[in-house]
Amino acid sequence: MNNTLFNVLMLAGIFFMLLTILLAGIFIIRMILRAIRRDKTFPKRHFQILSIGGILSVVFLLNWLYNPYFLPKGFLDDSKIIAYGDNEARIYHYTGFIPYKNVRVEIYNKNTHDARTIYYNYVNGPLGIAWLDEVKIQIEGKVLDIRKDTYDFRKDG
Fold this sequence. Notes:
Keywords: Membrane, Transmembrane, Transmembrane helix
Strand content: 25-35%
Order of helices and strands: HHEEEEEEEEH
Number of strands: 8
Radius of gyration: 22 Å
Strand order of the largest sheet: 1-2-3-4-8
Number of domains: 2
Transmembrane segments: 6-29, 49-66
Largest sheet: 5 strands, mixed
């Protein structure tokens, strides 16, 4: 995903979550005031808006937590392309609007031109990465089979 698009979606998601929390607080206060005044009407419109905000917030959170394509592209460090046979481990760094450092490792097959993200994590400092053989790579102490394994701190960490 494009870095700018990722930043816009993250800001929009955070905005909708904060707005939903604010609306939930207002809704609770209104319900308490209605109970004190013994008003039996229910604020349907407010509840509908709160429900839509809640649904959008849940969709955003689930997408951020479980969608492997909801990752920033990052910036390829040309000095960090580590080749072994037909495969290259390409290391992308990303720092967004929040001060944190993410690293994404993509395995690129030179013959088929297929790319697959196998590792995504926070990294403070240089990334420890080494090929063990043609199909196994060790990244930050985690041994991954490039054919089937992945590591994503959002799910596995």
